[in-house]
Predict the 3D structure of the following.
Amino acid sequence: MCVAVMLVVPRGVSPRRHYSLAAIAMAMTLWAILELPPARVRERICVSPSVAWGTEWSTLRRWAHAGRALVDLPAVITLREVAARVAQIAIGRAPPSLRTAPQVAQAFAGGTAMA
């Protein structure tokens, strides 16, 4: 008897994150650079709204905490500052043709390029 379970997701979905790197980069930009509150970021990123959401979105903090391992930053900076750095890296990966586009669009394109 086989007890294996396979989860098939679209290309670009980050392992164990349930979101694409493009969506994560976009969320980091909205939260850390444009300084939207977590509830507003969630409204923009999530596809299925819920009445039980509340005002925080712990996923943003989890993503920022995971981002701390990706970039060499002092341990004393906040998670929002880590998220800003991750967003800046994604924006830097956007194609040159998008340099005049809004930062959110650049972050999304950069996240796609990083996938």
